[in-house]
Structures are given as C-alpha cells and as structure tokens.
Amino acid sequence: xxxxxxxxxxxxxxxxxxxxxxxxxxxxxxxxxxxxxxxxxxxxxxxxxxxxxxxxxxxxxxxxxxxxxxxxxxxxxxxxxxxxxxxxxxxxxxxxxxxxxxxxxxxxxxxxxxxxxxxxxxxxxxxxxxxxxxxxxxxxxxxxxxxxxxxxxxxxxxxxxxxxxxxxxxxxxxxxxxxxxxxxxxxxxxxxxxxxxxxxxxxxxxxxxxxxxxxxxxxxxxxxxxxxxxxxxxxxxxxxxxxx
Length: 244
What we know:
Elements: H1 2-7, H2 24-37, H3 44-65, H4 70-76, E1 93-100, H5 104-107, E2 109-111, E3 120-121, E4 145-150, E5 156-160, H6 166-174, E6 188-201, E7 204-206, E8 214-215, E9 226-237, H7 238-243
Parallel strand pairs: 3-4, 5-9
Antiparallel strand pairs: 1-6, 2-7, 4-5, 6-9, 7-8
C-alpha cells in the first residue's frame, strides 16, 4: 500500500507550478516606461529657423558695433575724404566724388572758347561743335573733352577725360546707355584724384542735348560763379572698391 502511494504519479493539478520567466503586465509597463523615455522627433525646420536667427543676430550686432569700433574706423578711412570745393586751388591736387550714370557720357556738355592744354569743351564760345583735329582718333572715350559734373555735395567741376579712365571705361562698356532706358541705369559714385588746371567764370553748361545753355558755377550768393577745370590722375568706382 505504501509502495503504491509512493509510486503513484502526482496529479497534474497538484504539480508545483514553475514560475514563468516574465509576466505580461510588468513587461508592458517596462515597454511603456522605455517608450516614455524616448526623445520626441526633432523638427528640421526648428533647427533651420534657429540657425537663421543666430545669423541675423550676428549680422545685426556687426552692423551696430563694427562702425563704432577701431576696425570700423580703419575700414572707413580706406576711401579718402573728398576735398571741399572751397579748397580747390589751381595747381593743387585733390580728391573728388562724382555722381554719374553711363548716359552722362553723351548728355553732359559745356561751351567755352578757350582750351586748357589739350583739353576743351565739346562746343566753342559760339555754342558750335568744337572742330575735330584731322589726326584725332575716331573714338577715344572723349579723352580730351571737358564735361561738367556734380560732386556728391552738389559742387560743379569741369573734368576732362573721365570716361577714358580704365574702371569708368569698363563700366561704360558693360552698361552702354543705348541698350536700356535711362531709368534703368544705375547711378554710381566715382572717386577721382585730380589736378586743378584752371578756373572759368560762369561757363555755359547743359545737362542734356536740347536743353538751354546756362552759366553755372560755385560761389556764395552775390559773388561771381566760378568753376574749376581739372584732369583726372586716377579714378575708381567706389561701389566696386567697397565690395572687393
């Protein structure tokens, strides 16, 4: 009897239950916990916008602080300050800033019966075209022609051969005035180191073909109007100089 009890198999219902390797609920919680620790997806546009904001802030700071810094002062000194018109003296040199468009090559003219060295106006004292010398080149960018110009402070100067200067001649070639309407031509500033050769009292000037001739010059009200004649020693376009 005892042997029968010892040898009889244990019922399945009474067999000791083996602990499972893991319970479904804790595993679910663990997965949820891990999912909760994941970083949210990064929006690439946020990175782009934040980077742009940094760039804008840096540019704004540079615009505000660099002009006031020693570096800004050093950069500003690269363009010489133009000589004031009251300091223009015959025989002396100076720096002038002229404001022009390429259409001025054909538009600006003066009339005077005298020449200054090899330089002369396009018209004589009778407002007739100056006679062309037989040996004169067909086209030399008006190297010997005196034309009227306004400086950036509004003073009148009669300058010879501006359009024959290399940088100005290149600008005229790249932006011919006959290719587009005048309104589409960009106005630019030319810096010239010049030598003052003579001075005329109230020379006749016109700013466009067909316009009436008018005596013009510099001077205080009630004083004789005079204008200097100068030759360029070296000219540069300021906008190109600043971008280089």
